[in-house]
Design a protein that fits this description.
- The chain has 152 residues and is an alpha+beta fold.
- The chain starts with 10 loop residues before the first helix and ends in a 17-residue tail after the last helix.
- It contains seven helices and two strands; from the N terminus they run ααββααααα.
- It has a domain of 86 residues.
- Strands 1-2 form a two-stranded antiparallel sheet.
- Helix 2 packs antiparallel against helix 3 and helix 5 packs parallel to helix 7.
- The chain is elongated and about 55 Å long.
């Protein structure tokens, strides 16, 4: 088993960085070897926590038929690592953006931090808005106060 570290922001960029280490004449061979051997790509970032400190947010991408196909052929219109990871959430895979929304929902991080560190701003904005709608949180993280005027 081999573990390695690279300074990248997500699983897709990790694959592209590995491919970038080799020349164009070796790219297809490297793609084939990665498709045959790669089991997981786990990316992590430390995000400021509410109340101080840092929270590890991670992205997890495993190997399945779609991942191997994308490794062999490259990302395209119907093949992106982010979409593959999102579709495989039931198996424990998750994108950074999914992890950020979950951390916000659990009130570990602020809305601002989620947006700053997001990969897809529009997807995270939509996810945060959904959390706020279902939990009654405001942008400041407080509860929405509803006052009813009762007539006598």
């Amino acid at each position: 088993m081999v573990y390695s570290t690279l300074h990248t922001i997500n699983a897709g960029q990790t694959i592209n960085r590995i491919l970038g280490f080799f020349g164009k004449d070796e790219e297809q061979l490297v793609r084939e070897r990665l498709a045959d051997t790669l089991r997981y790509v786990v990316s992590q970032r430390l995000i400021p926590k509410v109340g101080g400190g840092r929270l590890m947010i991670n992205e997890i991408m495993g190997s399945n038929l779609r991942t191997r196909e994308t490794l062999l052929l490259g990302e395209g219109e119907n093949r992106s690592y982010a979409e593959i990871i999102e579709a495989s959430a039931p198996y424990g895979w998750r994108t950074f953006d999914q992890a950020l929304i979950e951390a916000y929902q659990k009130e570990y991080i602020t809305e601002e931090s989620a947006m700053i560190f997001s990969t897809s701003k529009s997807k995270v904005r939509h996810g945060l808005d959904h959390v706020k709608k279902t939990t009654g949180r405001t942008s400041e993280g407080g509860e929405i106060e509803i006052k009813l005027k009762l007539s006598a």
